């Protein structure tokens, strides 16, 4: 029998190896942007998520930009699907990976992203570049899905609960901690560190992809 795992990110994942229950813990609330920021010429446009790509795509024809960098293969694939040319994808799918691999100075950089995005990317790039951040959206908790999953855990209906963002972790634990459950899985060390804040030592995917997360679930069950 296939293990039942809950995926809490907004994008849907399919797998023949496990039974996936898709329960996003985050809802996206689009924000109004300052159109004047689109009138500048930029050297780099940086997308850190698929949500950012989807919400910013309608503004692309208003923008003059030389290069585009994205974090993550799924984000890059969505760009290609929308005919957005991608020039750079870091090997490590994180803000730290991008900062490590993309060495730029004196550039005009635009980062459209979540209003609650980690500030490290913007802060580090600002040291040697002119950086503009646009708050495209803000995440809000999907409380119904969170309570559905807590009930599933209490009824022993799932084998693993996965997280790909710190916001989702916090929204989940704000609603209460299910008893006697320790099968938590994380994409990325930042998400894992947030789980540790709540006394959880999670399994961590070897790569920052949903596929690697699924493989980690299977690997841990076979030990």
Structure commentary:
This protein is α/β, with parallel strands linked by helices. It folds into two domains: 4-25 and 142-222, Rossmann fold, CATH 3.40.50; 29-137, Rossmann fold. Helix content is 32%, strand content 25%. The chain has eight helices and ten strands. The chain has helices at residues 50-56, 73-81, 95-101, 120-126, 143-154, 166-174, 189-197, 210-221; strands at 4-7, 19-22, 26-30, 41-47, 64-70, 108-114, 130-141, 160-163, 184-186, 203-204. The chain has a five-stranded parallel beta sheet, sandwiched between helices. The protein has a five-stranded mixed beta sheet with strand order 3-7-6-4-5. Helix 3 packs parallel to helix 4 (120-126). It is elongated.
Quick tags:
EC 4.2.1.75, Rossmann fold, alpha/beta, 2 domains, lyase, 4pyrrol_syn_uPrphyn_synt_sf, five-stranded parallel sheet, 4pyrrol_synth_uPrphyn_synth
Largest sheet: 5 strands, parallel
Number of helices: 8
Helix content: 25-40%
Total number of β-strand segments? 10
Give the tally of structural domains.
2
How are the strands of the largest sheet arranged? 2-1-8-9-10
Task: Identify low-pLDDT runs.
Answer: none
List the helices and strands in order: EEEEHEHHEHEHEHEHEH
User: Which topology of the largest domain does CATH recognise?
Assistant: Rossmann fold
- Estimated structural class: alpha/beta
Q: What is the rounded distance between the termini?
A: 17 Å
The overall pLDDT, averaged over residues, is 91
Proper CATH architecture of the largest domain: 3-Layer(aba) Sandwich
How would the global form be characterised?
Answer: elongated
CATH class of the largest domain: Alpha Beta
DSSP strand content: 15-25%
Kindly provide the radius of gyration, computed on alpha-carbon positions and rounded to a whole number of angstroms: 18 Å
